[in-house]
């Protein structure tokens, strides 16, 4: 289970002992973009009840201003990966959620990102994973970009990573995966190459630690 899904379960446990009637809770999300529960239900893969629980945790506990900045996002990840340093990986995940690139996440952005990660189709999750590795958003994954993400994953997993964290190990791992994905040997990985390789070889997907860390 990933950090963000665990966060939902944590908030559910915190609030289920309280006597407040969640059905009567009217969610008033970020001021500049006030989308209601019904809209988010249609857009995401969460139920109304789940969204209510998530918003209470988001607003009252983690983000009282109704906005998640990157530091708060990193703190959420750090709670669930105490054995390593998750800050770099959380930075990259934050950027995939922050669609308008304003340096903060609205509740809607948070929900939509989490919806894909926790309940999206394989196509949706692989699209998200490609965007994660495509750090500069130019539509291609370079070896340097893959190295940055893989290194961040190793740092986050800490002493539990297999193989053990080592700069050379990360480089060798990237070399193997990149060689398989760069089908036409042009030095970059396109979205089509990424999708074809992941669908053909699930070991590649596992090797990239996509599902171990964000799904």
UniProtKB/TrEMBL annotation:
Entry superkingdom: Eukaryota
A molecular-function term among this protein's GO annotations: calcium ion binding
Family annotation (Pfam families): EF-hand_6, EF-hand_7
Keywords: Calcium, Metal-binding, Repeat
Domain EF-hand residue range list: 85-120, 121-156, 169-204
Cross-referenced SMART domains: EFh
Assigned protein family: Belongs to the recoverin family.
PANTHER family: CALCIUM BINDING PROTEINS, EF-HAND DOMAIN-CONTAINING PROTEIN
Protein name from the UniProt record: Kv channel-interacting protein 4-like isoform X17
Source organism (scientific name): Crassostrea virginica
